[in-house]
Batch of 2 targets.
Target 1
Amino acid sequence: MRFSRLTVVATMLLASPALAQTTNDPFPDPIEANEGVVRVDYSEFATIPDVDGEPARVMSLVDEPGTGRIFVSDMRGPLYTVSYDGGTVTGYLDVNAPRWGFSVLSAGRERGVQSVALHPQFGQPGTPGYGKIYTWSDSDDVAPPPDFAPTEGDAHDTVLHEWTANDASAATYDGGAPRELARFQQPFGNHNGGQIGFNPLAEPGDPDYGMLYVGVGDGGSGGDPQNLSQDLTSGFGKIFRIDPLGSNSANGEYGIPADNPFVGEAGSGALPEIWAYGVRNPQRFAWDPQTGNMFVADVGQNTVEELSLAFPGADLGWKTWEGSYGFVDRTGVDVGNARGNPEASYPVAEYDQVDPLIQNSSAATGVYVARDNAIPALNDKVLFGDMPSGEIFYIDADNLPEGGQDSLRRVLFNDGGQAKTLLQLIQEKNSEQGREMATRADMRFGHGPDGQLFLLNKGDGVLRVIVP
């Protein structure tokens, strides 16, 4: 199906202030705390080294079957490899090392090395993608001209790099300085980047094989003040799909896949890199191995966190919509204006930020779709979570809901006969480590070999894996 892309939500207007039913609690019935809880076992798989005495800020975990290692990134720059048994952690590459001439800006919680991806041919000698690693990083070096710029503002840049190892199996990176593929001039210092990744379901010969998906935030501040997410001439608030080995982009540093949804609409000004739009802070995405569905966890403004389906040309709504509802401002959403655009991709699941299970701050993260029966209790479930609280939720992958939080159920960890959240596990580990107790989990998921699901965090440096 193809959608009208030049006039976005042309017929849908927010209700007038006099009629708007504004609330910051659109789901007054709280998430079910006890019914349908799935309890899983876990093990502490490996520990990522501290940086300057502080626990690792682990952001990404990527399996590399060709070399039999897992790659794990710290937001401050270090990239490690971990053996499949978790027994060996090796420093592989420091993105922030002075020798590369590139400085990583890792101030605050939201800036740094946002994500890392390995080309699917990384461990295959003789292929075009051999040894190639991609990093998506914030930098305070704003001298180079950007490829994508906002209407105004110049807080820092977010840069997509390609690194090429000479020997992909070497214990440490043995290649040269990275090649810059794309640079974004950021107007503000928050929700700038997101995940980058390749579709693991695509095989050689498929149109999607080797295509890199890039999550780009709306540029920050609050409420998308420059209206960038719905602007198809802007790179912000989008999910890009590019060929990192191609060269037909405007800057000649990457390729534009011929089957991208906006290719051929150059006269409209729509960027051909865009695969989906209307996102605010697309932290994580993942594919369902059985259906091919792509799910995106998008961080909300002040009211709704969402998990949505993405597809070519999809409009995920922001900032016309926050979740299923008309976006008003930081005070809330208009529940009288709900899911009114038939062409928008509304959330399959969402939750409000004032739910009793959630902390004072919230942010959607994840995603993982369990299909291989590695953990029977999770099979045929879509998992995503709340980043600060460490709560993990699931929905039925074969009977996707149509928004709301009624269908959400919790995943908790067995620990000493008790059911605990990830944050509780982190806090107990902090006590063992003699550290100050973390108040946030800052959770992400990582996909390992043989369907393994890893839990990443920024509070104790421990990689945990769910086990049968």
Note: Residues 76 and 106 are 5 Å apart (CA to CA).
Target 2
Amino acid sequence: MCLQAHYRSELEFTWENLVAALTRLKRILGQIEKLKSPDHIRRVDDDDSLRKNFKPRFNKAISDDLNTADALVVLEDMLRAKKAEPDNKLSLTREFDQVLGLNLLNLTRSGLRVVPASASINPDDIEAKLTERQKAKAEKDFATADAIRDELTAHGIELMDGDPLRWEWRISI
């Protein structure tokens, strides 16, 4: 959240802004997780255009009175670049992260989940139910999939379907 604003400007803390920053971080981590996936298409890419295009932009942002807000935009643009080899993106992410200090290559989206002490179900049980639900949906057993969703909802679990890596979830507070 702090990196999204210039260090000299006033930072407005609200829960909504904190959730928005967490969502942005999870989106970045989702892109990085895709790059790390063994299923990701690897290309031979000797062209260093990724570095030539994005490193100067990143350096310019950081050199502009430590403009981390713009530097984050450059990072996101680089991660979305279509014609770039995943290992090159990961290497450049590592370089950018040495400046940003977010530890992006070691964080996971699931590691950012906040589970209240009052939760009536633990993350391992949630993951098991999600696996069961995913299998039911693959077998077109939508009644079972809906029943599992309802069961999770009763425990205060909010599912966000459509995540290409795996369904995301959070516990409603």
Note: The first strand starts at residue 157 and ends at 160.
